[in-house]
Amino acid sequence: MVIVLRFRICPPKPNGSSINLVVAVSFGLFVPPRILKSAKYGGLNVHPSLLPQFRGAAPLQHTILQGNKYTGVTLQTLDPHAFDHGDIISQVPIRIPRPDKITFQGLLELVTPEATKLLTDGIRDRLFLNPPKTSKPRTGPLPIHAHKIRPDHKYIDPRRGMTMYISRQYRALGRLWSYLWTGTEKKRVIFNHIEFHHFPEKSGKRGKLSADLNAIHSLPSKAPNGPKLWYTPYLEDKGDIIIRTPERAKGLRIKDMTVEGQKSKKAADVLSSIGYKHGELRCIVWTLPELELGKPQEQPEKPQEE
Question: From CA 45, how far away is CA 78, in angstroms rounded?
Fold first, then answer.
């Protein structure tokens, strides 16, 4: 008998039949040692990364957050003590097409056929009979642990800069959020749609935004009896707003936003009422958090967490 654990369902009882193999697919929970010990050949799992890189609950999201150009899938045994620490049976590397535009859904669709083939071929070829031992001393930098995504990982922190990380953040996690200053109070704002924007060489728009960056240093850094403020210049373009990033010829195009308690609107319409305007200068006005919020990348591996 082969027990397949999928989508967090409870494992069936064998009713006296012997269990040969446990296969966990998109299970998300730890398989108890008693179940693994009851199976003649233990357990198998297919993981959407090239282990040991991106062990954990969210390997696809972290692959995008890191801006990786390659990913892969791994067939491993189920370890009785820690997530994603089994013996590696086989792996398939996968090149990511357009890593600067790939989304979570796109990456999922890319790896799923390879993961399915790796698992079915492994079972058909009985690779679980004598799995190789891969517990070798690790050299080089520690692999990044793919921690479960939390709501604060979707937070845009302007202090980290308006970089292309925000584009990866949106493509990996979906809608992002932050706090903006309305002139009288801070409001939670959802950024519903963010795209990559390319500036042509010698772009006048990019030059204008570069000049605006010098102008914001004279703006107040704190609201009267309120929070600390941070300014990001932007340009309007057909209802969207465009933000310059430090990367060469690159920017962010924000198409629509939702202010708490209101309906979604075009980004330029939202900022026409809550943004900063002086002459030709247009700025998003962010309110800074009192406490540092988490960032789901470059975290040391913690095998016992999922």
Answer: 6
Q: Please report where in the chains the tokens 């204008």 appear, as a residue.
A: 208
Q: Are 203 and 237 in contact (CB under 8 A)?
A: no
The reported pLDDT for the residue numbered 207 is 78
| Positions of the chain with pLDDT lower than 50, given as ranges | 1-3, 7-9, 137, 297-306
Residues 114, 6, single domain; the answer is yes
Residue 88, amino acid: I
Token pair listed for 178: 């932050």
- Residue 128: phi, psi to the nearest 5? -80, -10
Q: How far apart are CA 84 and CA 277, in angstroms?
A: 51
**Residue-level pLDDT at 214:** 80
Is the pTM for the entire model greater than 0.85? yes
| CA–CA distance, 296 with 154 (Å, rounded to integer) | 9
Q: 298: left (phi > 0), else alpha (psi -120 to 50), else beta?
A: left
Q: Which two tokens stand for residue 170?
A: 């949106």
Q: Which domain holds residue 245?
A: 151-287
| Rounded distance between C-alpha atoms, residue 51 and residue 71, angstroms | 10
Residue type, 15: N
Structure tokens of 191?
């950024």
* Structural domains counted in the chain: 2
**95/157 same-domain check:** no
Sign of the CA dihedral with 162 first, then 50, 74, and 83 last: negative
Residue 38 to residue 46: CA distance in whole angstroms: 20
With respect to residue 244, please indicate whether it lies within any of the assigned structural domains.
yes
Report the alpha-carbon distance of residue 199 to residue 167 in Å, rounded: 15
Among 154, 15, 162, 31, which Cα is nearest to 84's? 31
Residue 73 tokens, joined: 């899938």
CA pseudo-torsion sign 221, 226, 227, 233: negative
